[in-house]
Amino acid sequence: MKILHYALGFPPERTGGLVKYSLDLMNEQVSQGHEVVMVFPGRVNFLKKEPYFKFGKRQNIPYAELVNSLPLPLIGNIKNPQDFMKHTDPKIFVNLLESEKPDVIHIHTLMGLYGEFLEEAKKHNIKIVFTTHDYFGISPHPKMYLAGHDFVDDKKYDIWNNIRPYGSKTIKLRTNQLSIYPALRSLVKNIKKTSISLDSLPERINLTTKVDSDFQRLKKYYINMLQYIDVIHFNSSIAKKVYEQFLPNMQWKSSTVGIASNNIYKSGEIRVAEKTIKSIAYIGPYTEEKGFFDYLSLSTKFIAKDSGNKAFIMGDNSSVNYDGVINLGRYSKSSLIKNLKTIDLVILPSKWHETFGLIALEVLSSGTKVLITKKMGVKDIVPENLQVDNISNFSNNINSIKMEQINIPSMQLHTKKIFELYDTTY
């Protein structure tokens, strides 16, 4: 089978769970004897106005880089919605589809993608599968969460009418599509490390019910794109619930399949030995929506409870000055396993309706306990006794957590399920 993936691209230009998962899936598909091509929104060429493709191969994956894609809101929010729904000549997509002749198109994000691409795929009768890595498309913000406010649970305020004050000018968003961006990002991080404290909590702007007609048009633009999807791959019951809540009339075929990773240390049946919790850790970006500040508050109580208790954080290069908390910074697969040997419990206190949360499986596969909030999609796999509504008052009960046996899927098994999804009749 030949699969054409549309994803965000390759490291170091692109980072995050979506990038890691899509590449893991592609590499596994290649290893199983299938043909793969990745289309991704690439650089900006200011000398040419129209989009075009540049072809090549990276990390063993053939690619078609969409130069002059629509803007990517990766480093900020959308401020000028009209820049995100421009039309282009569909001929470049016709040429791509007729030269590559894919059996399936697997969409991992709508960012940077022209609507004409999906229109032409439908005209060519190519099956289109969409994975719900986040909520971009049904929301102008991938997490549907702004400054401490979760719009999924909000029946009064529409995020599309409230995103503009948080937005960045399109020219700023375009900087991450410059060829020098990875080097520039590294230089800035080395020169000036971001310092994070409880004072870093984002300030919320007063919400409004006033309709922002420009953003409502953008909302219709993305919903129209989603109507071309044949099969939707919900990566969790959380993602399924949110998409169906905001798009109740969609008539697509769907399947709920949790995701996997090549970072999983050991798959299959996993059981963690019981032991007293003397060290805890947070893993992920040091951001409010991930529950980072809730973890810092809990860690204070945990450290104060016993002089031998330790609290760690890892996953971000930002500087954190917080009494007693040990900052391990960014990690690799090998350093993660090494660090986890000194940690008894990892706490993932996500506050947004996280579509999955792959780090939970990666940690459990190493033999370390994990405590998650029930807003995380990975709860479909993590035992119920390792799930809480809120961690803020949990410090006194940490040692009451009992570990159950868990079945962690391998990337090979996951890929098999994805091919079953590709074969779904529609």
Question: What number of structural domains do the residues give?
Answer: 2
Beta-strand content bin: 15-25%
List low-pLDDT spans.
Answer: none
Q: Which oligomeric state applies?
A: single chain
- The CATH topology of the largest domain turns out to be Rossmann fold
Q: What structural class results from the helix and strand content?
A: alpha/beta
- How confident overall, as mean pLDDT? 91
| Quantity of strands, as a count | 22
Count of helix runs = 11
Largest sheet: 8 strands, mixed
Overall, the morphology is globular
Could you explain the architecture of this structure?
With 426 residues, the protein is of the alpha/beta class. The protein folds into 2 domains: 2-260 and 414-422, Rossmann fold (3-Layer(aba) Sandwich), CATH 3.40.50; 268-408, Glycogen Phosphorylase B (Rossmann fold, 3-Layer(aba) Sandwich). The chain contains 11 helices and 22 strands. It has an 8-stranded mixed beta sheet, sandwiched between helices. Strands 18-16-15-19-20-21 form a 6-stranded parallel beta sheet. The longest helix has 15 residues, at 17-31.
Summary tags:
alpha/beta; 8-stranded mixed beta sheet; single chain; 426 residues; 2 domains; globular; 11 helices; Rossmann fold; 6-stranded parallel beta sheet; 22 strands
